[in-house]
Amino acid sequence: MKPVVVYCSQTGHTERYARWLAEELGCEAIPLSNRNTVRIDDFDTVIFGSWFHAASIPGSKWLKQQIAAHPDKRFVLFATGASPMPEQGGSAEEIEEAFRRTFPSSEYPDLPWFYLRGGFSMEKLGAVDRTLMKLFFKRTSKLAETDPKAAEADADMRAGFDGTDRTYLEPLLTHIRNLSA
Predict the structure, then answer these.
(1) Predicted local distance difference test score (pLDDT) of residue 180
(2) Most distant CA pair in the chain: distance in Å?
(3) Residues 181, 23, 35, 97: is their CA dihedral positive or negative?
């Protein structure tokens, strides 16, 4: 198996997973900004990592183009987000819905995807995203007044956090290793 990891990261959490993944697989982790240096024909498996942003996955246009142009290659997707992992109280349905907004199962029925908890860092956001997050916090503070779960999530986001954990890669690594079996 000859894999490559291509990633898109804003605050470093997706990049961390991409680098850990590349280390485990003995391959390169290449930022999406360097995508022109990646010759998909040189690999049999392309693992693409990004993050959830406003109900979409940045870089998805590139991945869709590669899937269409290289039907003989294997593609795997992972995305990071602030939500807890499903086994820790995150909603598996909401996570799947988020993936399927960008990659509908009717169009991408065979695209395996994996969710990895990332983190949040207000100071690493661009000006537009910081402004949007301030508006988001105004809305969530009202929910937090009556919903303890919303209050906890609001507090975590406001404080910023790093929820990355190398063990979250295990299902993804198992899937990739089984591709070559």
Answers:
(1) 76
(2) 54
(3) positive
Q: What percent of the chain has pLDDT over 70?
A: 99
> d(Cα 128, Cα 53) in Å, to the nearest integer?
12
Residue the block writes with tokens 């498996």: 45
**∠ CA(116), CA(119), CA(120), 5° rounding?**
145
Cβ proximity of 76 and 172 under 8 Å: yes
* CA nearest neighbour of 17 among 85, 101, 67, 92: 85
Percent of the chain with pLDDT over 90: 64
Q: Which pLDDT belongs to residue 147? A: 83
Question: Would you place residue 144 in the very low, low, confident or very high pLDDT band (cuts 50, 70, 90)?
Answer: confident
Helices (H), the chain: 13-25, 60-69, 92-102, 127-144, 148-159, 170-179
Q: What is the C-alpha separation between 18 and 98, in angstroms, rounded? A: 20
Q: Which two tokens stand for residue 101?
A: 């907004």
If we measure between CA atoms, which residue out of 67, 163, 166, 157 comes closest to residue 113?
67
Q: Are strands 74-81 and 45-51 parallel, antiparallel or unpaired?
A: parallel
Beta bridge partners of 13: none
**Where does the pLDDT of residue 160 fall: very low under 50, low under 70, confident under 90, or very high at 90 and above?**
confident
